[in-house]
Design a protein that fits this description.
This protein is of the alpha/beta class. It folds into two domains: 166 residues, no CATH class; 249 residues, Rossmann fold (3-Layer(aba) Sandwich). Helix content is 33%, strand content 18%. It is built from 14 helices and 19 strands. Strands 9, 10, 11, 12, 13, 14, 15, 16 and 17 form a nine-stranded mixed β-sheet that branches. It has a six-stranded parallel β-sheet with strand order 4-1-5-6-7-8. Strands 2-3 form a two-stranded antiparallel sheet. Helix 8 crosses helix 12. The longest helix is centred in the last third of the chain and has 16 residues. It is globular. About 4% of the residues have low confidence.
Length: 427
């Protein structure tokens, strides 16, 4: 029998205080909860029976395990943990596997914050099998003497051919704008220059912002990120786009915050202004932030409305927003390192050069204190890649979009997912 362990423990949520910041692993776009939901949907599509189990560690004896099984079910018990590695608690005597998203090229063998569950190497060694999200990390973990490792590609729904044709021709864009009349955004300049958080609430609808930028002939870029996470390298992205234009054509950026369920503008102002120190560099109103909740169809439409999706992350374990952008036939501007190097090449995107450096030590990632390295995109290189995109013909953009979709859909599909899970539970 297969049991799937989600990120939540009680009442569908798990919250923890980390450096005085309250993290809810489920209350965000592209959270662990979304990954869990995608895996459950894929298991149902594969007709593989499973049940959800929130506390596998309490079934430590054979007698306790019998409680989990129906009368006609036999051993063995398989447990798939879909949660951050530090939250995993194995079921003794069962066959345990984890879905592991890791973004660095080494794994620290230390107790972080004196917590044994934060010894990632030890936590991984307790697993009978490790699933990764792409070829790059499968090879990396194999090189780290973890013998039982394989990929588990999350399936993405392939778009119909007619949709792809419409997306590439941009002949339906206008009808989607009205969907954003109910969602709001705010200029990052207003956030940075507000005398108080209470005065930083001058907002407008996202559709109004996009219509105005279209009238100006702007190139509209989108990034979807957690502003709290230093790995997303938002500071360089904001510096590169703030007051940036090429041959008189303006570049605008929508920052879709993945954080939900908190005081949105207080949070955004605090994180972007205080944490990243952007106040001095926000000299234009070309960057707008939205922390509204978007339904899946609205997020899909947003990817379809913008001119390109831009990623400047210093490291990624999967980068699901970028994969979703590709699924929606959106051109991509991104570096090709960590997770992205496992499913994209230079023919599929407008690639941003990067330099390897010691990761900064920060509450949002492990950082240089543990001798971890990441890949940083510099402002001049980000701007050069944006210019390359702006200069590219429609035919070249369409060719890259088709190539990116082919690369991603050839791996992140139901067939490969079903094959990996079937091998795991010996079907």
């Amino acid at each position: 029998m297969l049991f799937v362990v989600p990120v939540f423990i009680e009442e569908n949520k798990f919250k923890t205080s980390h450096n005085d910041f309250l993290i809810d692993y489920g209350q965000a776009h592209y959270s662990w909860l979304l990954v869990f939901q995608k895996i459950c949907t894929a298991l149902e599509a594969a007709s593989i029976p499973f049940r959800i189990l929130t506390r596998p560690e309490i079934y430590s004896s054979d007698i306790a395990k019998k409680v989990l099984l129906e009368k006609d079910e036999d051993w063995p018990i398989y447990v798939l943990h879909v949660r951050p590695i530090e939250l995993i608690r194995i079921m003794p005597g069962a066959f345990n596997a984890c879905y592991y998203l890791w973004e660095f090229e080494s794994i620290p063998d230390v107790w972080i914050d004196n917590n044994p569950y934060f010894n990632f190497r030890n936590q991984l060694s307790l697993q009978d099998h490790i699933f990764t999200a792409n070829d790059t990390f499968e090879a990396f973990l194999a090189s780290q003497n973890f013998s039982s490792v394989s990929n588990l590609y999350l399936p993405i729904a392939e778009r119909p051919a007619e949709f792809r044709k419409q997306r590439l021709n941009n002949d339906y864009r206008g009808c989607l704008v009205s969907a954003y009349d109910r969602t709001s955004c705010q200029s990052i300049q207003d956030i940075a220059n507000a005398s108080s958080l209470a005065s930083s609430h001058t907002q407008e609808s996202l559709s109004s912002f996009m219509e105005r930028e279209r009238t100006r002939g702007s190139v509209i870029l989108l990034t979807v990120a957690n502003p709290w996470d230093m790995r997303k390298n938002l500071i360089s992205q904001i510096k590169s786009i703030s007051d940036f234009s090429f041959k008189g054509r303006r570049v605008a950026l929508i920052v879709k915050s993945t954080l939900l369920g908190l005081e949105p503008w207080n949070l955004i102002a605090s994180l972007l202004v205080n944490k990243h120190g952007i106040k001095e560099i926000c000299v234009s109103n070309s960057i707008w932030v939205s922390s509204d909740y978007f339904e899946k169809d609205d997020l899909d439409a947003l990817y379809q409305l913008v001119d390109a999706y831009i990623c400047t992350s210093s490291c990624e374990g999967l980068n699901l927003p970028l994969i979703e952008a590709i699924r929606n036939m959106c051109p991509i501007i991104t570096p090709l390192h960590s997770a992205m190097s496992g499913y994209l090449d230079s023919q599929a995107c407008f690639s941003i050069p990067y330099d390897t450096s010691l990761a900064r030590n920060d509450s949002s990632c492990l950082g240089g204190a543990y001798k971890l390295y990441w890949q940083e995109c510099k402002v001049k290189d980000i701007q050069a890649s944006i210019i390359e995109f702006m200069q590219a013909s429609s035919a070249i953009k369409a060719q890259k979009v088709r190539h990116a979709f082919t690369q991603v859909s050839s791996k992140y599909n139901q067939e490969l997912f079903s094959s990996s899970i079937s091998k795991f539970i010996n079907l």
